[in-house]
Design a protein that fits this description.
This is ROK family transcriptional regulator. This protein is α/β, with parallel strands linked by helices. 41% of the residues lie in helices and 18% in strands. The model is unreliable at 393-404 (pLDDT under 50). The chain binds zinc ion. Zinc ion binds next to helix 7.
């Protein structure tokens, strides 16, 4: 039943959390759960109402007399700007505070042209998608980029496909135009967050593996994304395979799984066999046609990926491994090879209840993941409290100060 935390007084941010999660939906509930006095509850709820984060409803069923006023989180009380950048497709959206897409667009953008071209284009697109919504409604920005990201700084490192982005610190560039908290993570982490929250919210441990031009993974451990010390966790692409034949990887090592089993590697190996393949779609066509050499090459790639995943499964013990990315989505033989090797090579306990599933959200997981990432940050009790302090200092300040 209600827990009393009178020792540490619940803040407005904590009160918002209780209302959002449905743990307390009336002022009386809030008093019971937090141990706050009635005036203290009133003060905090008043702040949240004023900021449009909470709305009152009086249509609750009544047992007679005046119905209690219910408090609800107001998803319409603000927006977040999100973008999932990809080497081939980029998706940009404006979402409400529940993460629902209000307006979105998908287009091809040559990310290789670098941040000077790509970031202004993204910001122009957000502006168009915002329409005549007041800019004061913007609470934060969440982005996924196809590069390793030093998360705390939003700095891209050793870009997998975006060499021109190496070392770029993205948040300050965005904040010049949208002065709100800006969170940037790598594309695979946001896919993992999106698939977890959108499809497996009740599972604490999930690994999302993207097999596309490159191979990468995002890990959810104990319900949260695992970033590691700087943000490099989950970079399984540069784990070597056994007997890879000495293929030089772009990272400088040899036989990384990325260099022998990614979409790029598949195209290279099939061309070496004399196949006329320019894109993954060409490979898909050969797989559909049952071309024996192509099928064998794809199965071999699956075994290589499975070999590396088996080790990762032993370390992480996920409840589900989700396979996404255009290569995984296109090739049944690849996925069945991965499954076979992972079940054979991982330990019995790690695979006892392990599920290996295709991505259900596909590319849409990127937008969901970006929205969840930034909303978890800007609606956290700490961030809400900080923005309240600022609001009381500057009554006209309706948006949170950028983090960091
Ligand atoms: Zn490598």
């Amino acid at each position: 039943m209600p827990r009393r935390t009178a020792a540490t007084l619940a803040t407005s941010g904590e009160v918002l959390r209780l209302i959002r999660t449905g743990e307390a939906v009336t002022r009386a509930d809030l008093g019971r759960v937090t141990g706050l006095s009635r005036p203290a509850v009133q003060l905090r709820v008043g702040e949240l109402l004023e900021r449009g984060l909470v709305v009152e409803r009086t249509d609750a069923p009544s047992t007679g007399g005046r119905p209690p006023v219910r408090l609800e989180f107001n998803a319409a009380g603000g927006v977040v700007l999100v973008a999932a950048l990809g080497a081939s497709r980029t998706r940009v959206a404006v979402c409400d505070l529940a993460g629902k897409e209000l307006a979105g667009r998908e287009f091809s953008m040559d990310v290789e042209e670098g941040p000077d071209v790509a970031l202004p284009l993204l910001m122009d697109t957000w502006d168009e998608l915002l329409g005549d919504r007041p800019r004061s409604m913007i609470r934060g920005v969440g982005m996924g980029v196809p590069a390793t990201v030093e998360f705390a700084e939003g700095r891209t490192e050793s870009a997998r496909v975006m060499a021109s982005w190496t070392g770029v610190v993205i948040p300050p560039i965005i904040r010049e135009r949208f002065p709100v908290p800006v969170l940037v993570d790598n594309d695979v982490n946001v896919l993992a967050i999106g698939e977890h929250r959108g499809v497996y919210p009740d599972l604490g441990d999930l690994m999302f593996v993207k097999v596309s031009t490159r191979i990468g993974a995002g890990v959810i451990a104990g319900g949260d994304i695992l970033r590691g010390a700087l943000g490099a966790a989950g970079e399984i692409g540069h784990i070597p395979v056994l007997d890879g034949g000495g293929v030089l990887c772009r990272c400088g090592n040899t036989d990384c799984v990325d260099s022998v089993a990614s979409g790029t590697a598949l195209l290279r190996d099939l061309r070496a066999l004399g196949k006329d393949v320019k894109t993954i779609a060409d490979v898909t066509a050969l797989v559909r046609a049952g071309d024996a050499e192509t099928m064998a090459t794809v199965r071999e790639a699956g075994r290589r990926i499975g070999e590396v995943l088996a080790g990762a499964v032993n370390i992480i013990n996920p409840a589900v491994v989700v396979l996404g990315g255009d290569v995984a989505e296109a090739f049944g033989p690849l996925v069945s090879s991965i499954r076979e090797v992972v079940y054979r090579r991982s330990t019995a306990l790690a695979t006892r209840r392990l599920r290996i599933e295709p991505s259900r959200l596909g590319a849409g997981a990127g937008i969901t993941g970006c929205a969840v990432m930034v909303l978890d940050h800007v609606l956290s009790p700490e961030a809400v409290d900080e923005s309240m302090t600022l609001t009381s200092l500057r009554p006209d300040a309706l948006i949170a100060r950028p983090a960091g």
